[in-house]
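Q: Convert this sequence to structure tokens.
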Amino acid sequence: MIRTLYSSVLIAAVSVAAATLAHGQTNSQRVVFERGKSTIVFEPYAPNILRVTLSLLKDPALAAPGYGFVASPSTQGWSHETNGTDEVYKSSQLTVTLKGPRSGGRRPPQSVMDPGKYFSGSTPGADISFTTPDGKTIAEMNGWSMSVLNHKDGNSQLNYDRRPTDPDFYQVGANFVSPDGEHYYGLGQNQEGFLDHRGHVVHCGHDYNAPGGQSACVPFMVTNYGYGIVWDNPSKTTIAPGFNERTSWTSDVGDRVSFFLIAGKTTDEIYAGYRLLTGATPLLPKAAYGYIQCKQRYRSQDEVLAVARGYRERHLPADVIVVDWLYYTKMGQMDFVPDLWPDPSAMNQQLHQMGFQTMISVWPRFEQGSRYYDFVLKKGWFEHLADGTPTNGLPYDKAGSDLDTTNPDAAHWYWNTIKENIVSKGFDSIWADETEPDLPPNGSYLHIGPGTQFFNVYPLFHTATIYDGFRRDTPHRGLVLSRDAYLGAQKNGAIFWSSDITGTWDSFKRQVPTGLDFAASGLAYWSNDTGGWQPLPAVHHPAHPPLIDPSDVRDNVGDYDDFPELYTRWFEYASFLPIFRTHGSRRYNEVWSYGKQAEPILEKYLKLRYELLPYIYSLGYQTYQTGAPFMRALFMDFPSDPNITDIRDEYMLGPAFLVAPVTEQGATSRQVYLPAGADWYNYWTNERVKGGQTITVDAPIDTIPLFVRAGSIIPTGAPIESTRDKQNIAKVRVYPGADADFTLFQDDGTTYAYEKGEAKITRLHWSDAAHQLSHEGAEAWTGSDVQVVDVVAR
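A:
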């Protein structure tokens, strides 16, 4: 504590005494400053994006960004000037000032300076402010550190995680001023149940055993102050937002502080910057926007086909059916148990004829004795210890060792092996399970370096291995289901889920803010295991009488009396997620598996999802174009409303829908806050309500509270059983009360032709004053506007 205090005082004293000076050097891409023994670099990427790098080592300070970034620097529109002792770098959207030493001022008393005899800071310090052209400060970095690992900080043991040939390890970090009204979102997946991270420490690292459910690190934080920070360090990082009037970032290992600041008048401008830096989110196969049926697990191809026939015989829509793990004879064997899976190719052919696509789980692990283990071992392609021994999970985990797909040769071989053994049999997409990787890499080594240094990047490499293979070798869009994520993983055709969560009301409630923060991290396609993955407890008696009678499904839910109610509420919520996917370790997990009372409700929301597909698929296209997620915490769309900063149980799905899931057992109503600045329509009743107030909404078991913002256009589709069927536009519903625009997107749903402009794009506009809908571009429906356009509550 004394040393921390002294470090701050020393930096202040040095500034007062003008003991260090910054000297700027400008080249075509950046401005470099020497301050004492440190090097500070300003490197712009757009008028609203600046990368800042600080290091005690010059070469790392000048080095390119780390993994996950695809953009190139651009100084267009930027200029550098010296203003007294300040170095000022500015564009039309951002002014960045490296503050120089200040003369005068009051020197700290000697009693405060005396501890410097024993304690010192690690760097000369720096104060960098970020302001808008009109002088409004949006962020200020007021300190940084780069310390050798040591016993006092309790991190000296990390030196054992590097080899003599590896570069030295440092702990690196930076502090930013945290005003009282600043709030923080994103930072990947953290399942503690918070939305606003202010006052909550975030441990940014992939952790399957995190108490609330698996965490996944995406070090991108968005604030309500007009900026986002992308932290360029792949090691475990601790973020402490809003403590003691500051937000601190501390990474376990690095040789520099490197971060990007993205300024934006709206959150969507910030996400456009993230897209520029890390890559666009491609459109998924249209089937992925429908319904994904999964269970832990379908043991045979007969069972898979029976489930598929069950949907088609009931004329229920569904698009993807999933083959989970343990279909093989050994982990890494890349085969099928012949008695249970006699002909996977024929199975897939039948499923395709029924309008189903198939996804299959493939783990990157190989047990000893499997057919590829010795080959991979000889090549040195396993995640390994310092002596080259493959890392394993013994004695409790006997599933073998992880393939190191950070090695490009190993990655290329891995995709080819999947293609030859799995994709060749007609499987359409890959579930890339265990992408943490499953054997945490700290203390082990990857092709790119020590696992402790590169702890979080494996999912970026691994999803790219599969997606790039799909793009290279198949005619249809790639789709990868991944447990984990990192900066830039959104460009790999990936959907993400919240891992092996429990089937409890508490877990369900925490899923809502978990998903919102994950999407706020710039990765739009998040989902969870509807109903939870873990096996159900044998007995669970709720506090309130169950709203769904469990008596006819005891063989499935046992004595978990309220599970059919929980599953129904969860399913209602899941139907309004970017990805609608069920999964779990129940005996049965189809929509007819939870009782006669639940079945019609589940069918209702399944059909509603497909009715809304034209709207949802068009949102996917908007994300591809802009980088902005379409599952949106309320802070994104209502920045002027102070009441929405930490609303954890409501969100927007696109510009129209406000979704308010019921997450309390036995509840038949709930409080819903309607954001200010708009009127709202109850979707079920068309009642119009003023915003800026909290209302009590009826929520019987078959109803999720759902509102539509006045000034919305929602295209809906005719009934279909899968996206293989052509879906005509049935209605274009207009909710008046403000002008509205919506871009309706239609294409083949399976190829990358949309990237070349091969699509039907129709721009819809509602003039509230004229009370008229107009449209331009491609013809979107065959009937007359009178037949198709439905103006609600005229």
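The CA atoms of residues 231 and 259 lie 5 Å apart.
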